[in-house]
Amino acid sequence: MQRPLDEELRDLRRAIDAIDEQILTFLARRFAIADEIAEHKALRRQAVVQPERAQEVRARYLEAGAALGLNPPFLAALWTLVHEESCRRQGERLKAFERSTRTV
């Protein structure tokens, strides 16, 4: 007996919802780790952006995504969003660290 199309569609949408939840969870974990990296950079007085590392990660991101059949322009845009948010958060952490270590 075949399942009704509405039921199949509902199941597919539930699967997408579950995956979206995982994506958000992974993004939150990634940004939490980026926050920890900011603390290490602050202690070493390093800049937020390390161009060589950023290019290395971008290349790996694009290559891995392409191997999975994902659209390169989409991957580039996604990487840019994730990288810019990581840099924004790290910048905030570094500023907070600088303020906390200033002597009055």
What does this structure look like?
The protein is mainly α and 104 residues long. The chain has three helices and no strands. The protein has helices spanning 5-44, 51-67, 72-101. The longest helix has 40 residues, at 5-44. It is elongated and about 75 Å long.
Describe, in short, the structure shown.
With 104 residues, this protein is an all-alpha fold.
Instruction: Please state roughly what percent of the residues sit in beta strands, choosing from under 5%, 5-15%, 15-25%, 25-35%, 35-45% or over 45%.
Output: under 5%
> Nearest-angstrom radius of gyration?
19 Å
Alpha plus pi helix count: 3
In whole angstroms, how far apart are the ends?
A: 77 Å
Helix and strand pattern: HHH
Total number of beta strands: 0
Please give a handful of descriptors for the protein shown.
104 residues; 84% helix; elongated
Q: Which helices and strands occur, and which strands form pairs?
A:
Layout: H1 5-44, H2 51-67, H3 72-101
Helix pairs in contact: 1-3, 2-3
